[in-house]
Amino acid sequence: MDPYRNETLSVPDYLDREIFPILLSAMREMLIEVHRRDALKGKCSFNALDCLAEILWNRNSLHPNRSHTWTDIFGIPQFQLWLRSHPRPIYPKSWLWTKEEAALRIQRYIRGWLVRKRADVQEMRQFWKIISAEGTELSIPESDKTDCRKSV
């Protein structure tokens, strides 16, 4: 039982005894996550406020059962209500990629561009563009068709 609950505390004392110990430990945990995701460099999908809210929700000492089953920020009922009235903007996909995934996408784009600019590939692309524009279908003459099921 907390000995400070029965007495009336001043605002600074209440903050020092009740709020800051919980908040500072949650912020410490959040900073570890920031460092793990390397979120201080450039744009990324990590939202520190979401992380802090998630930690405070799941580590709430008044609800010890929450720490056994971790709830994602989007699974918190109050947060779901907030999102209904305050929808978030859509982040560009590049903010959501890891460095490795971004590197792979850039490499894939450059390789595709290098292939598409080759003369033989350009010729083939032009051929198929003409074919599809004319609506011409390639057909096999009847004399060339054979039934594979017939025994010879």
UniProtKB/TrEMBL annotation:
SMART domains: IQ (SM00015). It comes from the Eukaryota. PROSITE patterns: IQ (PS50096). InterPro entries: IQ_motif_EF-hand-BS, IQCK. This is IQ domain-containing protein K-like isoform X3. It comes from Dinoponera quadriceps.
